[in-house]
Amino acid sequence: MKVKYFAWVRERVGKAEETIEPPATVRTVEELIAWLSGQSEAYAYAFEKPKVIRTAIDHAHVKADATIAGAREIAFFPPMTGG
Amino acid sequence: MTSTVTSCPVAIRIQEDDFDIAREIALLTENRTDIGAVVSFSGICRADEDSSKIAALTLEHYPDMAEEEIKRHVDEAISRWPLNGVTVIHRVGRFMPGQNIVLVLTASQHRKAAFEAAEFLMDYLKTSAPFWKKEESATGTGWVEAHARDDEAAARWTRS
């Protein structure tokens, strides 16, 4: 699946997007965040406060317990500050 | 379709270029005699944020999602208020104090619907449209933190 990062999450991860293949045991957004956090210090830093992170699956906001099955694109970002 | 009595044209644009409020209002009301009220909200880059002086703001967004997310809230506004037209323009890029960032126009037969829908749309633009502001000031650069007051403003529109 394709993963995108925005704002300070992007800066901390060190890239804007990538393709990842998490193991089948990773089923929800919060499990994906935990799995990514274990991949490197950069991810651990980006996701150090997982409750702050907002997530969108296929361009729609989802909660941390949302399933990632079938997702084409997952995006992680801080709370929005537009307008 | 020639009937304009119940039509509600929607324009949503995300762009680097500035907008002209008078021109956007003219486009919204052109050839319409059913509109009795247009509310216009402009968000402008200001120089003072709490106690620090802002030199510039940079707006980042999630292009694929931003328009869809704004559309979802415009559709909800149309379902909640009798609107005759909606325009939302959100700029991205780097802004100096005094420059336009966002425009919301709502048109209706009467003012109450137009006022409320504009406020509803702005409250959701601030808390749910995927845009992020980065500030430049004399002390450095940093991402603007989301305010609880914006979440509270959006929450009051939630229907139980």
Automatic annotation (TrEMBL), chain A:
Highest taxon of source: Bacteria
Protein name (Swiss-Prot/TrEMBL): Molybdopterin converting factor subunit 1
Pfam families cross-referenced by the UniProt entry: ThiS (PF02597)
GN (gene name): moaD
Species: Bradyrhizobium rifense
InterPro entries linked to this entry: Beta-grasp_dom_sf (IPR012675), Mopterin_synth/thiamin_S_b (IPR016155), ThiS/MoaD-like (IPR003749)
Database matches in NCBIfam families: moaD (TIGR01682)
TrEMBL record, chain B:
Family: Belongs to the MoaE family.
Catalytic activity: 2 [molybdopterin-synthase sulfur-carrier protein]-C-terminal-Gly-aminoethanethioate + cyclic pyranopterin phosphate + H2O = molybdopterin + 2 [molybdopterin-synthase sulfur-carrier protein]-C-terminal Gly-Gly + 2 H(+)
Domain of life: Bacteria
Protein name, UniProt field: Molybdopterin synthase catalytic subunit
Oligomer status and interactors: Heterotetramer of 2 MoaD subunits and 2 MoaE subunits. Also stable as homodimer. The enzyme changes between these two forms during catalysis.
Function: Converts molybdopterin precursor Z into molybdopterin. This requires the incorporation of two sulfur atoms into precursor Z to generate a dithiolene group. The sulfur is provided by MoaD.
Enzyme Commission number, as recorded: 2.8.1.12
Pfam families in UniProt: MoaE
Pathway participation: Cofactor biosynthesis; molybdopterin biosynthesis
Biological process per Gene Ontology, one example term: Mo-molybdopterin cofactor biosynthetic process
Keywords from the UniProt entry: Molybdenum cofactor biosynthesis
A single MF term (Gene Ontology): molybdopterin synthase activity
